[in-house]
Hints:
The protein is of the alpha+beta class. It has one domain (12-248): mRNA Triphosphatase Cet1, Chain A (Alpha-Beta Barrel). It is built from six helices and eleven strands. The radius of gyration is 19 Å and the shape is globular. The chain starts with a strand and ends in a 22-residue tail after the last helix.
Amino acid sequence: MASVSIGEEGFATAIATFKRHERKYLIKTEMRDEILPILLQHMRPDEYCTDGREYRIHSIYYDTVNHDVIRSNSQGMAYKEKMRVRSYYADNSPDAYVFMELKKKCKGIGNKRRIRLQNKEVAPFAEQGIPPQTDGYLSAQVVKELSYYLKMNRVAPAMYVQYDRLALFGKEDSDFRITFDRNIRVRRSCFTFGETPDDELLLPEDTCIMEIKILGAMPLWLSKMLSEKSIFSRGFSKYGVKYREDAKARRLTYVLEGIVNQSDNQTDSH
Length: 270
């Protein structure tokens, strides 16, 4: 299945707030293709899935020099919080628009707050606390939340994650969403949007992550389908899985781009 890039016109909703129950499932792409006809009876492709094709997402996750964010999120805490910068096209020019997002999860309920800003505004905001130019009450409030997060957490780019996404929305409920992510590639260096020779494939090529995001109860037809197909939910974080792999193999160091401390070149044993 081919993927497409979303141009700047894909930023129609510049500022958004999402709050949904989230469940993730690790399935084979063969199973995805098997259940898609059932899903499409009740759902429609995302407007960016041109002709039913996937689109590519580029994300840069931020963390502290000691990986405190992902350590905390990997310990099964009821409340989780992380910051990332996301782009829907591989444009690293200073004037290109991206999203800076603060994603929170409490007892399975996800809350995502984000602002639209230019590439050239990201580093001054993240490193020096200089807020980007924004319009409107909601965007100003999100900037305040991000400012507080950055004040409390000295973070820098820690992980690049790229994948191809097929997204569906409920025909009668646009807040009901199912996404399929595959071809997930990660790296811990060169924090720019786009592929590099250092990218690593996070999952086998025939495997994808299905995520169900919904405000209320799961539809009966969907619960029945998941049961009949023996599809069971499981926790899965792209950044978290790579972190645990590197920690187990003792490949983590206490050096992130933009942040250096006295523990340089030491290895994380956790």
